[in-house]
Amino acid sequence: MIPRRITVMTAILTTIAPSAQAAPNAVSPPPSPPASAALTKVTTVEGITEYRLHNGLRVLLFPDASKPTVLVNITYLVGSRVEGYGETGMAHLLEHMLFKGTPTRPDIWKLLQSRGATFNGSTWWDRTNYFEELPASQENLDFALALEADRMIQSKIAAEDLAKEFSVVRNEFEMRENDPAGVLEEKMMAVAFQWHNYGKSTMGSRSDIERVPVENLRAFYRKYYQPDNAILIIAGQFDQNQALKSV
Fold first, then answer.
1. Which of the following is catalytic: 95, 132, 133, 148?
2. Which residues contact residue 122 at a Cβ distance below 8 angstroms, ignoring those fewer than 6 apart?
């Protein structure tokens, strides 16, 4: 056991003595954005740093060097809560359509699979999100960021793709109907929120799903899929300075 007086003295000397170099295990502070960038640092809480772009996009960085992967998630602050009469299920249907490609990326599934990505999307009352997790590298991070930027503004929402996707969404709808816990949850929410969209299923009604006009879906997309209505999250193993430049 080390004598207490030596321990205390060592602590005092360590505190007051000038250090020739930073401690080897010191955690680097979150980087400040380049002066020329239209990017503002907002705050840092428990290792997560928030930035905001001039176009309103919020960016959260959560680096973790112990992870072998990098994850990009974009969440749009829109869900089934904003659907109008006869439009139930539109937010969820649009989520499916954003995997149908863009003019420059016609086959998003193939692109993601070719890089060994784990990816998906989900819809809830107040939000819709898309994510891809890839082996950690700057190239993969740039790929994921470019993909999300592209489908934010250039997703193909074509009538022929919509017709094909109806069967997929109907299958999910029927799976939900055969899930006792899911049915119970829907019934309870319907009682709790009788005059609010929280009382309706995110899946929507079968009749609305099958009859939604593609023009309505495009208008929904243009209105809500905007930078100032989105939060971009980057987590895992990545260089924060490079990530900010890429964003």
1. 95
2. 95, 128, 129
What does the alpha-carbon distance between residue 149 and residue 96 come to, in Å, rounded to a whole number? 17
Specify the pTM.
Answer: 0.83
Tokens of 128: 């819709």
pLDDT in the model for residue 206: 83
Please check whether residues 149 and 213 belong to one and the same domain.
no
Same domain, 130 and 169: no
Tokens of 79: 């869900």
**Does residue 210 carry a catalytic annotation?**
no
Contact 80, 124 (CB under 8 A): yes
What DSSP string describes 112-149?
HHHTT-EEEEEE-SS-EEEEEEEES-HHHHHHHHHHHH
Dig out the tokens for 156 from the structure.
Answer: 């193909």
Residue-wise pLDDT for 114-151, tens only, equals: 999 999 999 999 999 999 999 999 999 999 999 999 99
pLDDT tens track for 154-182: 999 999 999 888 888 888 888 888 899 98
Q: What's the pLDDT score for residue 41?
A: 95
Q: Are residues 90 and 176 in the same domain?
A: yes
Looking at the structure, tell me whether residues 68 and 165 fall in a common domain.
no
Residue range of the domain that includes 206: 80-97+156-224
Indicate whether 92 and 200 sit together in one domain.
yes
Domain annotation covers residue 21 = no
Asked if residue 35 has pLDDT above 80, the reply is no
| Cα three-residue angle 51-52-56, rounded to 5 degrees | 160
